[in-house]
Amino acid sequence: MTNNDLIKSIRGVVKEEIESALKPVKKTLGEHTNILEKHTKKLGGLTSTLDGHTKKLEGISSTLDTHTRKLDGLTDQLADVSVEVTEIKEAIKSHDKRISTIEDKLDLPSPIK
User: Fold this and answer.
1) HEC states along 18-50?
2) Fewer Cβ neighbours under 10 Å: the N or C end of the chain?
3) pLDDT 10s per residue in the chain (113 long)?
4) How far apart are CA 50 and CA 99, in angstroms?
5) Are 100 and 110 in contact (CB under 8 A)?
């Protein structure tokens, strides 16, 4: 046997040993690749679901903004009405005082309140 034949023989044996040693690694790598592909598909579905929820939440947010603006407007109107009610109460007190003064001058009895 020549050196070249011996080298080829050694290379063949080493190659077989390496391939034999790599079989379980390749098998595990294949299994992990399959698992990764399954998870990728599931994540794709979840991403789609999350996108749908995001769109719904954006709609809800828009509705909340609209309601907030309406409530702010109602708050402003309530403040205006409150001021007007206060003015009416003050006017009623003033009229009550005037009526009471007139009743006193006319010697009329004050109605029971």
Assistant:
1) HHHHHHHHHHHHHHHHHHHHHHHHHHHHHHHHH
2) C
3) 688 888 889 999 999 999 999 999 999 999 999 999 999 999 988 998 999 999 999 999 999 999 999 999 999 999 999 999 999 999 999 999 998 888 888 888 877 65
4) 71
5) yes
